[in-house]
Amino acid sequence: MNTDFVSFLKVLNDEQRKSLYTFDQTNKAVFKMMDKKTKLVVMRLLHLEHIQYNPRLSKFVSIDDFGTLLSIGLLESVQLDQNEYLISLDSNFRTSILDHLYDVSQIDNVELGIDSGLLEEYYQEKWENIILYLMGEDIRIPSNVKDILVFAKIYDENGLTKEGVKYLLLNDTQKLWLLMKSYVELKFTTINPIEIMRILMEICYIPIGQKRCINNESEAYHKLYYQLSELGLIYIENDYFTSTPLALKLSYRKGVDDVSHTGFIVVESNYQVYAYTSSDAHFRILNMITTVELRLPNMIICKLTRQSIKNAIQVGLSCNEVIRYLESNLHTTMNSLSEIYEQVFDQLRLWEKERNRITYESGILYELQSEHIFNLIIECASDLNAILWCNYDKMMLFVKEEAHPKIRTFVRDMRNKNKS
């Protein structure tokens, strides 16, 4: 499941990635979403045409540290000897990041004059409707969005799928990239997929409130921008559009942008959960993984219980998915109280293990009278690795269902041999 831009890049071929790296917005987004270790490697390579990697250099940097860069086609590597490589960054990426770091390029834009609060409400309403539609509410959403949800196997004629249940608990960035991948593959427009990715990277770097004119764009581009507005990524007014706060989440990476992420959930040591939200979508999701006790205009009071975890597992969720949802939405006040919610999460895992103590296997039960035949059948079943349970005193044996024909043939051959 490709749920971020870096994961998406890994499945593209070299030619497609090369095309993407000719755009500044793509390069900035890739650099932003790298982990700290990979960023450090990039910073070391930026001012060098290439480096000669050999065993002496391995004391300072491992070849494994280049793994992410190699997997997304940002490194060119030529083997000179058995343990010696010539390594260089993609030239377009290198130039773009240098320009970005030294602020060479400037963007001249005009303020649109739209309040950021209005843009926030706009995208939240769009996404609220999508989530509520997935959960069975009688809400109209654009046909294009429905097609994307079906193609992504999130929704079908019977309603929410098992993959769709897991989708609900993803964070906004993961939800977005899963839909964007399906959007590109569906080929809604005649625009090249690489160009679509470039536009996505562009809108996630347009400051909120700054406008882009689409008056001179072709009909295909107008259609693309309109479809992006249906997902809440941009807000269109007359012949201009501006990015919404949702678009900024396209380049969000956990651990990098967490400072600005406030969250809305507080978890207490007595398994009580307080969600500071008025969202109907949040209410429906929490109702799926907790026992809701009270709903106020701006707060939901609920509790994590053995039964609520059991119910979540029955609809196709795992305990770890529930924990990840709670962790990704924890209020910032919980940052200094990690020992509290970690204890709660440990208990959730124990409740899940309670349910997994019993496993069900279909098979065939043998109840025999002859000890000799019983021992021969055990030997045959053992060779087939088919024994699920055995009681020697009662001469009873339970074997895997698929092994029954072979065991039956073995018994028949054995009896025929004794008759002859």
Spatial gap, N to C terminus: 61 Å
User: Mind summarizing the main beta sheet?
Assistant: 4 strands, antiparallel
Shape: globular
Query: Number of helix segments?
Result: 19
Q: Looking at the chains present, what oligomeric state does this protein adopt? A: single chain
* Rg measurement, Å: 29 Å
Instruction: Estimate what percentage of residues fall within beta strands.
Output: 15-25%
Let me know the average pLDDT.
Answer: 84
Which structural class do the helices and strands define?
A: alpha+beta
- Which parts are unreliable, with pLDDT below 50 for 5 consecutive residues or more? 104-110
Helix content: 40-55%
Number of strands: 15
Itemize the secondary structure elements and their pairings.
Elements: H1 5-10, H2 14-20, H3 24-33, H4 36-45, E1 51-53, H5 67-71, E2 75-81, E3 84-89, H6 91-101, H7 116-134, H8 143-151, E4 155-156, E5 159-160, H9 162-168, H10 172-186, H11 193-203, E6 212-213, H12 219-230, E7 234-237, E8 240-243, H13 245-248, E9 265-267, E10 272-275, H14 280-289, E11 291-296, E12 299-303, H15 306-314, H16 319-328, H17 338-355, E13 363-367, H18 371-383, E14 387-391, E15 396-400, H19 404-419
